[in-house]
Design a protein that fits this description.
about 300 residues, alpha/beta, Rossmann fold, 2 domains, seven-stranded parallel β-sheet, 12 helices, 12 strands, elongated
Length: about 300
């Protein structure tokens, strides 16, 4: 069984697969080369860089390719055309539990960074500046955290925020699913109530931004918007406009409409805390993701 790993994978997990008798090939392919590579693999493991689309699946089918399984090492599967793949007999799996705490912790880290000017102070002090009077922050305790989407990451974040003394409100497509927190019928209600609003939803089916100028206008001028979920959920230029106009206090982004980040307004905006798509990038999470991938492969493609 040939396992193609295109975007990297925990070393111990790859060694475990090899020890079990699988052939593991670690190689990234550009989109125009990916289809041919998939024809030669029984399973493919991707993260966020590789995108498996209908044309790649068509190439596998047309050439009687071997591919039987596609695994996304992470929470979402937006970068795989799931229904199309499964309709063609290719199973699609992900690892939704493995990185929840890592993403929740990074979200919380961004909240502290915004609240206490940690990023800005770090930069200015390295420039020899002592701007103590400019950095009067706020406490998280007593503030309201609004969550759009109440999945595993949101639940982990909500528990941590509650421990810090925050109030949690949320909305979810499934309705009221967490009785311990205040449920809101719409995302608009969450946007209006939150001192910090964090997104934990998949990309829209049409690819359009879920948070644009109209949604940002609903938020408090003292509020902060956080997106560690999917690039494109937030209209980046509308966000910069709101920050420039004082309609929003700040924002934090780990994911972007185009990656690596190319929008210079976002890149250089002093009110945005930035990280390069590292929500699940902890040693612990990658180890758990790797072992979960091993279990999926053993279950679906046993030797």
């Amino acid at each position: 069984m040939r396992i193609l790993v295109t975007d990297g994978m925990d070393k111990a997990a790859m060694e475990e697969l090899t020890k079990l008798g699988y052939e593991v090939v670690k190689q990234f392919y550009e989109p125009d080369q990916l289809g041919a590579a998939l024809c030669e693999a029984d399973a493919v493991v991707v993260r966020s860089k590789t995108k498996i689309r209908a044309n790649h699946i068509d190439e596998v089918v047309a050439n009687n390719g071997k591919l039987k399984l596609a695994i996304r090492g992470g929470v979402g599967v937006d970068n795989i055309d799931v229904k199309y793949a499964e309709d063609k007999g290719i199973k699609v799996r992900n690892t939704p539990r493995a990185s929840s705490d890592s993403v929740a912790e990074l979200t919380l880290g961004h909240m502290f960074t915004l609240a206490r000017f940690i990023g800005a102070a770090n930069v200015t002090m390295r420039n020899g500046e002592w701007n103590k009077k400019d950095y009067e922050g706020i406490e998280l305790a007593g503030k309201t955290l609004g969550l759009i989407g109440m999945g595993r990451i949101s639940r982990s974040l909500a528990a941590k925020a509650t421990a810090l003394g925050m109030k949690v409100v949320y909305t979810d497509i499934m309705g009221k699913i967490a009785d311990e927190y205040e449920y809101c019928e719409t995302k608009e209600e969450v946007l209006a109530k939150g001192d910090f609003v964090s997104l934990h939803i998949p990309a829209a089916a049409d690819g359009k931004a879920v948070i644009g100028a109209a949604e940002l206008a609903l938020m408090k001028e003292s509020a902060y918007l956080i997106n560690l979920a999917r690039g494109g959920l937030v209209d980046e230029d509308a966000l910069c406009d709101a920050l420039d106009a004082g309609k929003l206090a700040g924002a934090a982004l780990d994911v972007f409409a185009k990656e690596p980040l190319a929008n210079e307004r976002v890149m250089k905006h002093a009110k945005i805390s930035l990280t390069p798509h590292i929500g699940g990038s902890t040693k612990e999470a990658q180890g758990r993701i790797g072992m979960e991938i091993v279990d999926i492969i053993k279950d679906i493609l046993p030797l």
